[in-house]
Specification:
The protein is mainly α and 266 residues long. It is built from 9 helices and 2 strands; from the N terminus they run H-H-H-H-E-E-H-H-H-H-H. The protein has a two-stranded antiparallel sheet. The protein starts with 20 loop residues before the first helix and ends with a helix.
């Protein structure tokens, strides 16, 4: 549980932290589009260099980014096993006691793994360098043009912000419940499958109860302060786009164009 880093803001004095949240969200979306372009390993190499460079510029520790990657290792292993048994095209790479591993299976798994890792790195970079309040304001401003189509921009931004904000809180709550269950003799790591299922249920049920209780307390607190999603309100903090924001957007667009060009010709 401690390996989850998504949703945690890390305050450091970097140029990435000082960028406008709207531009950071747009940059993240453009990089996500580039990740899904079929540019093969050439494009993924460019995106990997860009991701590592952004982590260095943002002054984040690579250990923090790796924490966000550990929870998906089980999924990556599952995808590897599924591709090995399903994909039967290409040439045979390995023959393990009659179990044939084809080249397309390895390449397809590599593509999925790289895409997933890049997506997690980019999203973690966004949440780690953007305050939850700034992220809410940025999402609301980006969704503002859709208000004419009756899209609740403020409500959507508020829900996303609250969800990201409570990820670390729920992790801490689950750790507290696990320690309390362990003190009562519940073992989540050993035992038979049915015993593990019962142990997990003993963790999930109180976690759901605690989550609903926190949601009710948050709703009561917002209602006591007169919060109304439809009310017209002013902002104490005004977002302002500067030259460095436009430069960052231009550089990300250059990366997107380069990856798209590789996807077109490769």
């Amino acid at each position: 549980m401690t390996n989850i880093a998504l949703g945690r803001y890390i305050p450091t004095n970097s140029i990435i932290h000082k960028l406008d949240p709207r531009m950071k969200i747009m940059n993240m979306l453009f990089l996500m589009v580039a990740v899904f372009l079929p540019a093969r390993f050439y494009g993924y190499g460019i995106l990997s260099v860009v991701a590592v460079s952004l982590i260095l510029v943002s002054k984040l520790k690579f250990g923090f980014i790796l924490k966000s990657l550990k929870p998906v290792l089980l999924m990556l292993i599952f995808l590897l096993v599924i591709n090995i048994f399903v994909l039967r095209t290409g040439y045979v790479v390995v023959d393990i006691f009659g179990l044939l591993v084809y080249s397309d299976a390895l390449f397809q798994t590599a593509y999925i793994v790289i895409r997933l890792l890049l997506m997690i790195m980019i999203t973690t970079l966004l949440t780690a360098t953007t305050k939850p309040l700034d992220l809410t304001l940025g999402i609301e401003d980006l969704l503002a043009p859709f208000k004419r189509f009756k899209v609740p921009a403020h409500e959507i931004a508020m829900m996303i912000s609250i969800a990201l904000r409570f990820i670390p809180t729920l992790i801490e709550e689950s750790q507290r419940i696990m320690k309390a269950q362990a003190s009562r003799g519940v073992d989540l790591t050993e035992g038979k499958i049915n015993e593990k299922i019962v142990a997990i249920l003993s963790l999930i049920v109180p976690l759901f109860v605690s989550s609903f209780q926190r949601a009710e307390e948050l709703a009561d607190a917002m209602e006591a302060r007169g919060y109304s999603p439809t009310a017209v309100r002013t902002r104490y903090k005004q977002l302002e786009v500067t030259l460095k924001d436009w430069v960052s957007l231009f550089l990300v667009l250059c990366v997107l164009i380069a990856v798209g060009t590789l996807a077109w010709f490769v």
